[in-house]
Design a protein that fits this description.
CATH superfamily: Jelly Rolls
Number of domains: 1
CATH topology: Jelly Rolls
CATH architecture: Sandwich
Radius of gyration: 16 Å
Distance between the termini: 47 Å
Shape: globular
Oligomer: single chain
Structural class: alpha+beta
Helix content: 10-25%
CATH class: Mainly Beta
Order of helices and strands: HEEEEEEEEH
């Protein structure tokens, strides 16, 4: 029997937020599942969702002319997917594909964009979490690049 998935506030990205902050971020949250092989994001489509990966694995791919899809990174439970909603023109820059069945919380980006007079402490809390995710991803890419250069030596 599958284990029940943890509630929204237990996802590492949101852990530690106050109930008020959580309510503001999750004003339009839905549970969304994707079967293996399904696209969660398609490059060029409107970016309007932040996915909190609850289970499964997702690969980030970029279509390289003449070579096809190129794997850039693999995400797993506890990661977030989709940062293009942060900046205009609000379009996905990559494809994201489920390599196994994936369960997510899908948060509507309109709840998180821009300052909120009703929740003035939300923006700094969200910004710090997003910066941490970006830093962690940059660090993973750096380590992957080191492996590539090491393997070629």
């Amino acid at each position: 029997m599958p284990q029940p998935l943890p509630p929204l506030e237990q996802h590492p990205f949101l852990r530690g937020l106050s109930p008020e902050q959580l309510s503001a971020i999750a004003c339009k949250v839905r549970e969304q599942s994707f079967p293996a092989g399904a696209l969660l994001l398609r490059e060029g489509d409107p970016a309007d969702t932040l996915y909190l990966v609850r289970s499964g694995k997702v690969v980030l791919e970029q279509n390289v002319p003449g070579r096809g899809p190129t794997l850039l990174e693999t995400l797993k439970a506890g990661d977030i997917l989709g940062l293009s909603w942060l900046f205009p023109p609000f379009r996905w820059h990559l494809d994201a594909r489920a390599v196994e069945s994936v369960d997510t919380f899908a948060l509507d980006a309109s709840c998180m964009r821009g300052p909120s007079p009703e929740h003035p402490v939300l923006e700094p809390a969200l910004a710090m979490r997003l910066l941490r995710q970006l830093y962690d991803r940059l660090e993973r890419v750096r380590l992957q690049r080191l492996d590539v250069y090491k393997a070629g030596a």
